[in-house]
Amino acid sequence: MSISQFLARCDAYRARRNVSDARLSTLLFNDGKKIGLLRAGGDIGVLTLARVEQVLAGLESELPDGPSETPCDDAVEPALAQAPAQ
């Protein structure tokens, strides 16, 4: 998943839950500024992105009507999908 795809999923989640970037960033990264950093062109590394994508998927699954239909590239490297949280 690319950063832009991840941010699109974040936007979809935020719209459905009516939460700010800072709140979602805190839930995903334990840092209220990380999504803003990504929006400004910053990078977080592939392992961190893979980990927070899984966290976001868990948050999406808790929504009353399930995950959004935001298209994403699910072709994550198997090593990344199995990577332990850092």
Characteristic terms for this protein:
86 residues, mainly alpha, 5 helices, 0% strand, globular, disordered C terminus
Protein model, in words:
The protein is an all-alpha fold. The protein has one domain (3-66). Helix content is 58%, strand content 0%. The protein contains 5 helices and no strands. The chain has helices at 3-17, 21-29, 34-39, 46-61, 78-81. The longest helix is centred in the middle third of the chain and has 16 residues, at 46-61.
Low-confidence regions: 70-86
* Approximate shape: globular
What can be said about the biggest beta sheet?
none
Work out the helicity level: 55-70%
By helix and strand content, what is the structural category? Answer: mainly alpha
Radius of gyration: 12 Å
Helix-strand sequence? HHHHH
Q: What is the average of the pLDDT values?
A: 81
Gap from first CA to last CA: 18 Å
Total number of helices: 5
Strand content: under 5%
Counting DSSP E segments of at least 2 residues, the number of strands comes to 0
Total individual domains: 1
Could you write a compact summary of the structure shown?
This protein has one domain. It has 5 helices and no strands. It has helices at 3-17, 21-29, 34-39, 46-61, 78-81.
